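Here is one record:
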Amino acid sequence: MLREERHTSRCVRVFPIRAQIRTTASGVTQRDTNFYDFMIDLEMQESIRTAVCSLWEEVVLPNWSFPQKDYVFDLLLTRDLSGGHVIDFNPHAPHTDPSLFTYEELHKVLSKAIRDASARWTSLPELRVIGSPLHPAATHKMLAYRHNRLPIEALTLSDGRNIMEFGEIWREEVTRAVREDDG
C-alpha cells in the first residue's frame, strides 16, 4: 500500500491540444487529489511541466496514433521528476475526469491555440496541483468520474459490439498480449 501511495504522488494527467496542430499540452494536472508539499515548489513544477512536454514530443507523438484527434493520457513521473512512463490513454470526453481543470477551461486554451499560431511551442502548459491540505479537491476524496474509469482499449474494442462480441474480442486481446509478453 505504501508503495502505491508513493506512485500516486507522481501521477499527472495530460491534456494535449490537438496532436495534428503539433502544439504543446494545454494542461497538466495532478492526478491524485491529496496534498503533497513537494508539488507546490515552483522549481519542481517547472521540472514536471518540462518532463511532460518532452515525453509528449519524444514518446507519445511518434509512437502512438489514435483515430481521435483529442485524447488525454496519464503519466507516472520518475522519482526525480525528469522523465516518466505513459500509464493510460483516455478519450477527451465528458466521461473522462478532467481532475483540477474543467473541460470549458481546456476548450478555451484550445480555441486560443487555434487562433494564435504564434502561441505554439512558446510556453510550457499550465500545471494544476493541490496547493493546500484545505484545497476543495483534497477534502473531497471520491472522484466524481470514478465509476467511468475504463482503459481506452476497452472503449476501442467495444465500439459497436454487443456484450458477447466484446467478451470474445477482449479474451483474444488478453491472450495475444500474454503471448507477446512471454515471447
Notes: Confidence is low (pLDDT under 50) at residues 1-6. The beta strands are 11-16, 25-30, 71-77, 84-91, 126-128. Helices lie at 2-8, 42-63, 103-115, 136-139, 152-158, 163-182. The longest helix spans residues 42-63.
